Structures are given as structure tokens and as C-alpha cells.
Hints:
Layout: E1 6-9, E2 26-34, E3 41-54, E4 59-70, E5 77-78, E6 92-95, E7 103-107, E8 111-123, H1 126-130, E9 134-145, E10 150-152, E11 173-175, E12 185-186, E13 191-192, E14 207-210, H2 216-223, H3 228-232, E15 256-260, E16 271-274, H4 298-307, H5 315-323, E17 347-348, E18 356-357, H6 394-397, E19 413-416, H7 421-424, E20 449-450, E21 453-454, E22 462-465, E23 506-508
Amino acid sequence: MKKMKKLIVFISLIAFLQSTVFANGITISNVSIINNGSNGQLKFDVSWENGWRSNTLNNWDAAWVFAKYKLVEGQWQHIYFTLANNTIPAGFNLSQPAGGEGSFLFRNISGSGTTTITDVRLGIPQNISQGLFDIKVFAIEMVYIPQGQFYLGDGSGPLNYTFATSNSYLTPVLIDNENVGAGIYDGRGGGMLSTLPAAFPKGYNAFYSMKYELSQGAYRDFLNTLSYPQQVNHTGNTPSSVVGTAALSTLNRSYIEIKTPGISASNTPAVYGCDAGGNNVFDETNDGEWVACNFLTWADQAAYLAWSALRPMTEFEYEKMCRGILAPVTGEYAWGNTTSFLTPYNLTAAGTTGETAGNASTTVGNANVFITNPGPPNNGPFRNGVFATVTSDRVTSGGGFYGVMELTGNMFEQCITTANTFGRAFNGEHGNGMLNVNGYAVLSTWPGWVSGQISGGSDDGIIYKGGSINITSNNYINVSNRGAYAAPPNISLGRGSSFHYGCRGGRTAF
């Protein structure tokens, strides 16, 4: 009997907003392979709620779609789209990098609401369309940040080490081209920046950012494509541990666990699932897969971004995502002012797609930080997009200027810094969907390059932006703050001390 190709829809669920009415989850459905001889296609529908395109701001959200395949007994490999033989319905557009590592799908006319794109067909290599493979399809919600000028620094003075035009730290810097460098005072870097390398992403050019921090469901899906040795290097407990053993930690709302133990001797990887309920019944509707993933080291983030064909974000890009085209406000948070909620949140429907902070403010900015984080059992990250509702605005949803969420609070943003040579060596290189046999990224211009890979060594070159659930002072969550937790050079962080470090990546637009 001829073996049938198995199609597995794996949506990297980077977020849901509360309730089914305004849930922001992205779904892929009706997946199939069309074999037209030399014109093979991957066919699917994709849909997400609360999508938009604003022609006024030249800003939209998009789905980054990529896929993996494997023989039954083989390892998962990346599918590279052929860049030809694509079909997409009217009203939508397609953008693919030259290497075919994935595809951006988005509206091409202004509007908002549920985005549903049916009968998408992307060209795939002939051997995959005709072969007998298992296939997984992934999708991540992204936001397009348009080309244009913006400000670095907020004029708050030397305490925060913000970017400025001089060592007084009082005058923000206008970034009005991609070749800036001279004229920027970098207190953490020891003085005036000389011209930055041409390829260092400075934020002026257009780029895409993940709309949300990486979810626990998405990291689970990542682990489930790795070999046993690769899983060892991106989890906190041995993959051969018993069912119910935590993948990363048992603390701070970390819900990924071993669903089926791996076998080291035969190189059989573990299967992971989410289990917030702790009942060894995995991936139920209340098992927390939509909660932001914590306990991620820099090596974990680098691996996930390389695997998904994305890249890290720079601290210049972080400030642009928060502030947009507006003039700086001294001490501002991602939502553009200095007012914030100061009372612990009460979570309801915890662990579900409808997880809600029932007492969230309807007038001032909301963020999950130390002073607002609930006590046990909910003392950890929240569901991505938890503050966005049908009635929220930029301030009360806690969003950045262009619609990127949780840039203030929840998990630290692990960004590339300009404050040392490790960060300045970054040239914007993207992952290509592959990892080495140890599960590490192999991009030599990314921070952490040690012995031919980005391993668990030093994270020099990384700056931690936006604050987190562990931040005791709101001063540290200011958009332009570069002190305290955001003070490179950094020491290597082990798994246990990374409970408030998450992951967000992006891609340069093309």
C-alpha cells in the first residue's frame, strides 16, 4: 500500500486576545499538497482576528508562514518556497525573501477586522510535492514597521544612560537615515558612536516584528521538531525524564512538560505538551499555551529565531516600535506616556485563550511588572495580548505605536546593543531555518558566537529592554532606559535566572 503524506498543521500561537469575540489567534486550515509535476504547491487557508492595514501610516499586520518536512525516520528539515507558482486571492499580497525561507501574507487594501485568506498556494520543490513526507506548517503574527525617521532617547538625563547627542543625555537623537552613527552619544558604550557598520539595522529602514512575545505553545512546537541531543540543549531537564517533568521550570507559570519521554540510546526525541492544569492531560483549552514563554536563555532565543528564519531585533528598532514617528516623552512607556496601573492584577480564566486581567485600567497604561503581578499561582507572565480588548486603545492595551504588544513589561526583550563590539558586529543576518546537530544557531555575526555556534556561553552584545515581571521600579521599564538590567556587557544567564526573559524576533523588509 502506498504511504500517504501526513500534513500536520502547527500554528506558532504567538498570541490570543481575550474571548472568542476578539481572539487574536492565527489559524491555518485545509492544508494539502498539490502535485502538478514540476509545479508543486503547498495549499492552505490562514486567518487571524483583529488584523489591519493602515495606508495612512503605511503599517499592517501579517502572517509569517513557514514549513518543515521529514521522512518518517528522519529529522525535520526546512522547506524553501520556490518563489514561483504562487497563487493568492484578490485583496491580499505576498512577500517572500530571496531564499524562500517563508512567506509574509497580508492585506493590500486599507481596513481592519478578521483577516481570512483562503486557497493560498505557495510553490514548493518538486521532490517535496511528489515525495512521501510528514509536513508541518507554522504561522506567526507579525507587524510591518515602515521606513521613516524616529527618535532615540528621551532626554531623561544620565541616570538612564539613554541615547543622546552629548554626555548631558538631555537631547534625543533624530534617526533620519540608515547610515547614522556619528553624533550619537552611547553612555553604555563609553562615548560618541563612530559610524556604525553599514549593515547594522538602525531602524530607519522598514522591518517586520513579531506582534507578541513568543508563546509557550510556540516553544513547545519548536521543541517537537528537534532531535534528542538538540532538545537537551534547549530544555532544563533531560528529555528522557518521566511524563509530566517540566521542560524548563516548575516555577513562574512555566507550563511546558514532557508528554512522551525521549530515549537517549536510540536518539528518540521527547514529545512536549502544555499542562497548566498539572493533570498530565496535555494541550487542553486551559493549559497555558498562549502565555508568554519564560526561562529562555539567549541561546534559546537565537535558536528559535534561526529555526523560524527570523533574526534578533536591535535596541534602535525597539525604540522605533514603541515611539513611532512621535517626539519623545521623558520617561515614557511603550504606550507613549508616563501613567501606568499600580495595583496587582486579578487574572480570570487563567491559562485559557480568554485569560483576562479583570481589574485592568480603562484609563491608564497596563503592563505586567513586579508591582502589578499577582501572587501565586499566577506570579509569572500573562497571556500575550491580555490587555487588548474590543474597547481598549493604545494606552490601555499597553501597545506600541505600530501595534506591537507587550513591549513594556511581561518578558524582557532580548535586543542587540550598540554598547560593545559584540553587538555592533551584528549585520542583520537572518536565520535560514536550520540549526546545527547540537540545536544551536550558527550565525557568526549574532552575539554569543563561541566555537562555531551560538551556545550557552556569554550573551555579551545583548541588551534587555522594556522591563519584566521582575522589575521593581517603573524607571527601569522606560522605553529609552539603558541602565540596571539593560547594562551590557552582560554575564551569561543560566536557565534558573532567566525566568523573566522571553523572545521576540523580526525580519528586515524586502
